[in-house]
Amino acid sequence: MDFELTEEQRAFAQTAREFAEGQLAPHAAQWDAEGIFPKEAIAKAGELGFCGLYAPENAGGLALPRLDATLVFEEMAAIDPSTTAFITIHNMATWMLGTWATPAVREHWGPLLTTGEKLASYCLTEPGAGSDAASLKTRAELVGNEYVINGSKAFISGAGSTDVLVLMARAGDAASGAGGISAFAVPADAPGITYGKKEHKMGWNSQPTRTISFDNVRIPADHLLGREGEGFKIAMKGLDGGRINIATCSVGAAQGALNAAQQYLHDRKQFGKPIASFQALQFKLADMATELVAARQMVRLAAAKLDAGARDASTYCAMAKRFATDAGFTVVNEALQLHGGYGYIREYPLERLLRDARVHQILEGTNEIMRVIIARRMLDGDATEVIR
């Protein structure tokens, strides 16, 4: 068991840090305040391979382990969790398309997506199907050599500004449950697609969120990903990695907040001395650092389990998502508290990090659903011996 990173992994992380400092840090506050979707910056991330980190090589990706991808995402999220979170979603959708698309679809979209020239959205959630994803109602009916899609999706990141939609729709009958769901690659500008208003959100303001409606949208039959009925399995495989990604964004946000807090404790003076000299604040910083290291190691453990194809990888991913997003938000909140009133104003990054990190406890499966997944496994007879 080796907890040390390799030189190659450190190099990836350093490249991501330099990119974040050069391309994200100067603009993150403006993107948040003005609701700007920074497609040019994301394309620059694509030039470094960051838009196809774990997509297969035959789709133009780097095919890196999930563990290596977390190193890149963490460094970027320490500066801008919102933009980084979209890049992680794009990576997930790109991996799904690259892994399950037909050769023709993969050859067309793969290089465009992995370079960041084009962007992807992931479309699973519906107005009436959030945590209960298997109950989704969007339908895809095979008519001749085309699928005809009708329905709607909600809370879709990037919607209206991306180029391809990785869509989950029901190709079976209405009572077919998870087994009736299939996955599709849908051009985002296909006739019959309409986008709702841009949602006004608490955070994640550098990426648009909209509903999407599908009215007799026709796509070629070869835009099916995998086989009919495999969509829910594909979605869940995608979400295992997505949960690690969002957990990593929380770790990154927490690291950015911890960096700011440490510096502030040295710079701020009260009662004639730096507030770093007050033991109560030292203890708070110590607890923040401890929680952050624990969260980071849990995320990396889950990533390693997923890379190894471990039987219980999904359980570890759920654990990492639950723990890291809760702990990450707490660390950011404590860092804001250490800044006092300054933490609450936009001159400092704390309030933005806090707003961006809050949604991580909700999406990719709420943390309550993560507890359901974990508990379901832990009630098995061998769980306490296997899950360690």
From TrEMBL:
Q: Does the keyword Zinc apply?
A: no
A GO MF term: flavin adenine dinucleotide binding
On whether Cytoplasm is a keyword of this UniProt record, the answer is no
EC identifiers of the protein? 1.3.8.11
Pfam families from the xrefs?
Acyl-CoA_dh_1, Acyl-CoA_dh_M, Acyl-CoA_dh_N
Its protein name is Cyclohexane-1-carbonyl-CoA dehydrogenase
Instruction: Name the InterPro entries on file.
Output: Acyl-CoA_DH_CS (IPR006089), Acyl-CoA_Oxase/DH_mid-dom (IPR006091), Acyl-CoA_Oxase/DH_mid-dom_sf (IPR046373), AcylCo_DH-like_C (IPR036250), AcylCo_DH/oxidase_C (IPR009075), AcylCoA_DH/ox_N (IPR013786), AcylCoA_DH/ox_N_sf (IPR037069), AcylCoA_DH/oxidase_NM_dom_sf (IPR009100)
